[in-house]
Amino acid sequence: MAAPGEPGREAAFARRIDPAREPGLSPEQRQLMAQVERAQRQRALQRRLRGRNTLLALGIGAVVFGIYGYTFYSVSQERFLDELEQEAEAARARARARAESAAS
């Protein structure tokens, strides 16, 4: 058996085995090992999907926030243009009134 500090040699507890070629394993032990490996792969897949779902949620949130912000910006610009148009109409009315009073 190799000493844990010895370079280049695997410790016995960290040695990977192939259940199909290991002579001392019973069919139940092989089945249990296969079941554990499947469960580990499933958990890894779920972690990956959770990460993708988080990124997707952040992307959708950014798009919604952008649309919401653009809508508020557009409405405020519309209101600004309406106020500007009202001021221009009032200025035209004052100019017409002055022109009429100067003409008389």
UniProtKB/TrEMBL annotation:
The chain crosses the membrane at residues 55-73. Residues 42-87 form the Cytochrome c oxidase assembly factor 3 mitochondrial coiled-coil domain. Its main location: mitochondrion. Residues 7-21 have a biased composition (Basic and acidic residues). Pfam families: Coa3_cc (PF09813). Keywords: Coiled coil, Membrane, Mitochondrion, Mitochondrion inner membrane, Transmembrane, Transmembrane helix. Residues 74-101 form a coiled coil. It is found in: Mitochondrion membrane. It comes from the Eukaryota. One of its GO terms (cellular component) is mitochondrial inner membrane. InterPro entries: Coa3, Coa3_CC. Residues 1-28 are annotated as: Disordered. PANTHER family: CYTOCHROME C OXIDASE ASSEMBLY FACTOR 3 HOMOLOG, MITOCHONDRIAL, CYTOCHROME C OXIDASE ASSEMBLY FACTOR 3, MITOCHONDRIAL. Belongs to the COA3 family. Core component of the MITRAC (mitochondrial translation regulation assembly intermediate of cytochrome c oxidase complex) complex, that regulates cytochrome c oxidase assembly. MITRAC complexes regulate both translation of mitochondrial encoded components and assembly of nuclear-encoded components imported in mitochondrion. Required for efficient translation of MT-CO1 and mitochondrial respiratory chain complex IV assembly. Required for assembly of cytochrome c oxidase (complex IV). Component of 250-400 kDa complexes called cytochrome oxidase assembly intermediates or COA complexes. This is Cytochrome c oxidase assembly factor 3. It comes from Limosa lapponica baueri.
